[in-house]
Amino acid sequence: MAVSGAGAQNILKIPELRRRILITLAFLIVYRVGVHIPTPGVDGDALAAFFASQQNTIFGIFNMFSGGALERLSVFALGIMPYISASIILQLLRVVIPYLDRLSKEGEEGRKKITQYTRYGTILLSIVQGFGISIGLENMSSPGGAPIVIEPGWAFRLMTMITLTAGTAFIMWIGEQISERGIGNGISLIIFAGIVARMPRAMGNTFRMMTAGEMGIFFVVLLCALMIGVLAFIIFMELGQRRIPVQYAKRVIGRRMYGGQSTHLPLKINTAGVIPPIFASSLIMFPSTITGLFPDVLFMQTVTQMLAPGSLLYELIFVGLIVFFCYFYTAIVFNPEDVAENMKKYGGYIPGIRPGKRTADYIDRVLSRITLGGAAYVSAVCVLPSILMTKFNVPFYFGGTALLIVVGVSLDTVRQIESHLITRNYEGFMTPGGAKKKRR
Fold first, then answer.
1. In the chain, what is the straight-line distance between the N-terminal and C-terminal CA atoms, in Å?
2. What is the spatial distance between Cα 171 and Cα 187, in angstroms, rounded to a whole number?
3. Cβ of 245: how many Cβ atoms within 10 Å?
4. Tell me: the pLDDT tens digits for 52-87?
5. Other Cβ atoms closer than 10 A to 304
6. How many domains does the chain have?
7. Which of 15, 19, 258, 282 is deepest in the core (most CB within 10 A)?
């Protein structure tokens, strides 16, 4: 799906859409400026040298999702991951806590309450992660042996914890403002902006490695071909649908006849979108933050080594989490029983399937099968490229997770822009004299 040439020209001519796009860009610029504001008490050169040697580790992944804020230990170093982790926890608790499940069904008021609980959880997780990072930094040094923290102690720990928590709270607010007043999903766009902002640097590093003889020209060409192939595959799968035929029976209301038309129910192969890899990455990174609280415990060091990107355990857990969240998030956003009930209400049915429960079961069965294919596709895109990049020492942000997020968020944003354009066209026809203007 892409915005047509005429549609692209009309984007800036629509005041509401132009305002939303400018608000989104303004908030993203504020976010990128904040990425470059450092937290006090850290030797920036020593920290940069440390992260230069950690590109293909869990720190490199965390740094990718924070948009490079972690390697500078900026005020936004934690990024949006605590918010995502809190959202995961709240959604999982809905299954076991009836109160939260009732809130989710109470409309706007219930949604506001759940959002409030998510904010509280974000602050709590940010405090824990900020404190863990501060202790972990005190025990780290650059490859040359220079300490990263200038003056270790409780003053540094409290300052870092407060600063990083405030930064995450501000990012959370930016994301909510973009979703409400801008265009696209604010949280996803923040991650998108961080990944895209690091791509020029990744290309520069690749070119430097090629000129230095660390990478051959043939391998660089092969890498570019792999990226283009993965990109095309992602777009193809993200637009893929399983269309279930639906027939609407003829109904006579008064003197008019309604229905009697054939249509289809589109089921996306990847209904969950970019949520599964983001959620999976957030959860798999959280234990590494906790181990920073116990740097001298041998068990914690072993856990960190076992969860290193590229290891068998890491990839198995990552794939398992992706599959779980593909099914879990699909079950949240798509309810076959509601769809079947609405079809029955308006006289719709699937040929050969009884309306009601049989229709819901059929839709659920089809959705489960295509979700398995979608989960396999997302897992392959996220895992296979990351293994190749790890083995050949290529910058990690060329991996499949980053490409999947970039493509998924781009497609979602384009859909929202097209929805505004379509809505604007309908409003033009509904406005008095609008039809005449269209004919001119």
1. 28
2. 9
3. 12
4. 665 555 566 666 667 777 777 888 888 888 888 888
5. 17
6. 1
7. 282
